[in-house]
């Protein structure tokens, strides 16, 4: 018996129940090419059991703030009829961890900058670190930087 046989294939309801997502979410992931199923002769959707692990990976990635398009790009080369391995997961996790580290760094900087702005409210293009991160205007040289700039 192969994994696409009627005995082992999952219905959309079974996929939803076993992966802890709504049926509409299963359809949404399929519409976004994150998972893939097929239709029976009776026109019912069926899924390989590997879809459960794929959905687990998608859920963890989204929880970590990885954009859906990035998740799709990572999963695109993974066969839909093979359960993702520990090595597959390790590869995704490493790439997404690096992305998370950068986001944490950026958010920490933003938090510190917002703290320094509390009570000010100027939102000055020249002075406010929120409007002028890393003093981009200062690095561009002395003198007015916004003259002639497109709004
Ligand atoms: S609001 Fe004034 S420095 Fe940011």
Automatic annotation (TrEMBL):
SMART domains: HTH_MERR. Pfam families: MerR (PF00376), MerR-DNA-bind (PF09278). The keyword Zinc-finger does not apply. InterPro entries: DNA-bd_dom_put_sf (IPR009061), MerR-type_HTH_dom (IPR000551), MerR_fam (IPR047057), Redox-sen_tscrpt-act_SoxR (IPR010211), Tscrpt_reg_MerR_DNA-bd (IPR015358). PROSITE patterns: HTH_MERR_2 (PS50937). Keywords: 2Fe-2S, DNA-binding, Iron, Iron-sulfur, Metal-binding, Transcription, Transcription regulation. Coiled coil: none annotated. GO terms for molecular function: 2 iron, 2 sulfur cluster binding; DNA binding; DNA-binding transcription factor activity; metal ion binding. GO terms for biological process: response to oxidative stress. This is Redox-sensitive transcriptional activator SoxR.
């Amino acid at each position: 018996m192969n994994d696409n046989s009627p005995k082992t294939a999952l219905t959309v309801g079974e996929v939803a129940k076993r992966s802890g997502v709504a049926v509409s979410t299963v359809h949404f992931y399929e519409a976004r090419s994150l998972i893939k199923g097929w239709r029976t002769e009776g026109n019912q959707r069926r899924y390989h059991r590997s879809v459960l692990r794929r959905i687990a990976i998608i859920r963890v990635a989204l929880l970590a703030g990885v954009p859906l398009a990035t998740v799709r790009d990572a999963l695109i080369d993974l066969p839909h009829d093979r359960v993702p391995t520990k090595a597959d997961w390790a590869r995704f996790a490493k790439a997404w961890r690096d992305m998370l580290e950068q986001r944490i760094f950026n958010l920490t900087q933003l938090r510190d900058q917002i703290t320094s702005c509390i009570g000010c409210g100027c939102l000055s293009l020249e002075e406010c670190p929120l409007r002028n991160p890393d003093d981009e205007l200062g690095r561009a040289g002395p003198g007015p930087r916004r003259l002639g700039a497109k709004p």
